[in-house]
Design brief:
Layout: H1 2-33, E1 41-46, E2 49-53, H2 55-70, H3 75-89, H4 119-122, H5 125-137, H6 147-155, H7 167-177, E3 185-188, H8 198-209, E4 214-217, E5 220-224, H9 227-239, H10 241-244, E6 246-251, E7 254-257, E8 264-266, E9 273-278
Antiparallel strand pairs: 1-2, 1-3, 4-5, 5-9, 6-7, 6-9, 7-8
Helix pairs in contact: 2-3, 2-5, 2-9, 3-6, 3-7
């Protein structure tokens, strides 16, 4: 009798362990499929340097870098600008200043009282970025200066060495977003919660890069570009994928797909153009 009770206990224990294991498996599977637990982030990997930004920061970084490309400035100019904006505003278009500059506003914390423009202008990321580059270009040999020194000559900050801590991030994102380093930028995102609008994408693209050859075709936008410019536009699209509901970007034999979360993959994408696909709407 004791032997039978022991056998029953063993069977019950095995069944309990089996059920527990099954429950854990189901829980893990559900967690893996649950998008609510996905941390949305954009990552730039260039050589041994890896840097991360939140999606809104990455979109601002993409604009700042695109303007440098549009103006024909070197990637180092974008690095200086990104390091500056990260120090001044955390790469966010904030509408307030601090005790040292109570009227400071925008990505670069520019002060209307010091001639950077009206409050409305410095809160416009495009105006603010161009104003920063206008000032940077007046510095002789800025592209050979230490990044923090070049930034300080533009900003005249009370903390002149503070920009140096953001050099790594600036270099990585500038290299990716100028197209200097292909397939360096990846964003991990949840599924779009709304349909993408090709018109909005084109407006944002042309505001950033100026006159580019672009055609909307259904749910895609096709940009004529090659080489570094193509990769700049492609990685700009990835950096803006959350806001613009981008689901796929194809360029020069590579594709980025929002749902795969595997970064850039080999594909049959043709050269000489960038194809950006937007969402038809949230998944049912």
């Amino acid at each position: 009798m004791a032997r039978r009770r022991g056998l029953r206990r063993s069977i019950v224990l095995v069944l309990a362990l089996t059920l527990a294991a099954g429950g854990i498996y189901v829980a893990v599977a559900l967690i893996q499929r649950s998008e609510t637990l996905v941390t949305e982030v954009c990552t730039a990997v260039v050589g041994s340097q890896t840097a991360e930004l939140a999606t809104d920061q990455a979109a601002n970084a993409a604009l700042i870098t695109a303007v440098a490309v549009r103006r024909g400035m070197p990637a180092r100019a974008a690095t200086i600008a990104l390091a500056t904006a990260m120090q001044e505003s955390k790469l966010r278009n904030i509408d307030h200043g601090d005790q040292a500059g109570p009227d400071s506003r925008g990505l670069f914390q520019q002060r209307p009282s010091q001639g950077w423009g009206t409050e409305e202008q410095v809160m416009d990321p495009l105006h603010a970025t161009n104003a920063f580059y206008d000032a940077l270009e007046k510095i002789a040999g800025y592209d050979s200066l230490e990044i923090t020194d070049a930034a300080q000559q533009v900003q005249r900050s009370a903390f002149p060495r503070a920009y140096a801590q953001h050099e790594g991030m600036g270099r990585a994102f500038a290299s990716a977003l100028t197209g200097q380093t292909p397939q360096a930028l990846d964003c991990t995102l949840r599924s779009p919660d709304s349909a993408g609008q090709t018109g909005s994408l084109i407006d944002e693209l042309m505001a950033a890069y100026g006159a580019v050859s672009v055609v909307a075709d259904g749910g895609t936008v096709v940009v004529e570009a090659s080489g570094g410019q193509a990769w700049s536009v492609a990685q700009w699209a990835v950096a803006n994928a959350k806001e613009l509901s981008v689901t796929q970007v194809d360029v020069e034999g590579r594709s980025w797909n929002r749902s795969s979360r595997n970064g850039w993959q080999e594909s049959g994408a043709a050269g000489g153009k960038v194809t950006v696909t937007v969402s038809a709407g949230p998944a049912s």
